[in-house]
Design goal:
Helix content: 25-40%
Order of helices and strands: HEEEHHHEEHEEEEEHHEE
Strand order of the largest sheet: 4-1-5-10-9-11-12
Strand content: 15-25%
Structural class: alpha/beta
Largest sheet: 7 strands, mixed
Length: 323
């Protein structure tokens, strides 16, 4: 099993005399065997719990094709100089943004709109670490997913795969083009500062807006993350989006869905709410610098089952990818 196990062996009573060495070793071997078998059973139960969970069951089926997709930010290049603005995450954004255009005009004197650069092999720290954790999690369940950047992902090429997309909320991904339904949307905080989550369908116990903030007299920052599970190709496959208001919150979402205790908590809440197959779960993330101190469940919303998929031959739609 790749690990040492310490086993306590009690001394025999004086009146029985010293037990033969073989019997002592046999008892040690039996005790060690029982302990290792117990650890193996616990490992089996943990893996089985993940296999049977609402999130992971489709991913861990025998023969399933899976892919882990990293989010990538939008870059622009100008004579070898790469430009990145966190407020510009699609070619459309640059049309209404003044900073990228101002830098472009100051350097080149060209008044035309700067075009986005070809795919850049770059991602966030939380996406990188989260992707490695996710890859290891799949390996532990005897799955060997493909890994690729969002800029390399093609909806048609991935139509027969389950997707895990790890991307901060600012990053534009393939899923933005597919327009999956969402009850939670990232917006700017007050005055354009910070991050916030808009809840479009708040229940009585929920907030309309969840703001990233630092509580008074605290060293912790409060951020938010989303776990979103949608159907892919009309329900035959799944898309799991793990996203945060910053890169560390994105990694926290990965930690949540790969932690057995957190998965069990989520399963209990889903079952109490009718056990929807598709949902979005909002998480509150407490950060100290670049370290995630803890993650709290906030709420979840069920998403409807998809209608029979009817799509044009030209490509993606809200229902998935056309055959």
């Amino acid at each position: 099993v790749g690990r040492e196990v310490a086993v306590a062996v009690s001394q025999p009573a004086a009146r029985t005399g010293r037990l033969p060495r073989l019997r002592v070793r046999s008892r040690v071997a039996v005790a060690a065997g029982i302990l290792l078998a117990g650890l193996g059973y616990l490992g089996f139960r943990s893996a089985h719990a993940a296999d049977a969970s609402t999130i992971w069951e489709p991913f861990f089926q025998a023969g399933a094709r899976n892919a882990i997709v990293y989010g990538t930010p939008q870059f622009f290049s100008l004579d070898g100089l790469y430009l990145r603005d966190v407020n510009v995450n699609s070619p459309e954004d640059v049309k209404s943004d003044s900073r990228i255009g101002a830098v472009h005009r100051a350097i080149s004197g060209d008044s035309q709109i700067l075009a986005p650069d070809a795919p850049i092999l770059y991602t966030g720290i939380g996406e990188a670490f989260g992707g490695q954790k996710m890859l290891r999690y799949f390996w532990e369940h005897s799955q060997h997913p493909e890994t690729l950047l969002n800029s390399e992902a093609d909806g048609r090429g991935m139509r027969d795969a389950n997707l895990v997309v790890i991307a901060s909320m600012r990053f534009r991904t393939l899923l933005d083009e597919l327009q999956f339904p969402s009850d939670f949307t990232r917006i700017d905080g007050p005055g354009g500062n910070g991050e916030a989550i808009l809840n479009s369908k708040p229940a009585a116990s929920e907030s309309k807006i969840y703001y990233s903030h630092r509580p008074a007299h605290s060293t912790q920052e409060v951020e938010y993350a989303l776990v979103s599970l949608w159907p892919w190709r009309g329900g035959n496959h799944r898309v799991l989006l793990l996203s945060g208001t910053n890169t560390y919150a994105t990694e926290a979402a990965v930690d949540f869905v790969t932690d057995p205790a957190s998965l069990a908590q989520l399963e209990r809440r889903l079952r109490a709410a009718g056990h929807p197959r598709y949902f979005q779960c909002l998480l509150r993330v407490f950060e100290v610098g670049t370290h995630v101190a803890r993650v709290e469940y906030v709420t979840h919303h069920a998403l409807p089952d998809p209608a029979p998929m009817v799509t044009a031959a030209r490509g993606p739609s809200i229902k998935g990818i056309a055959p």
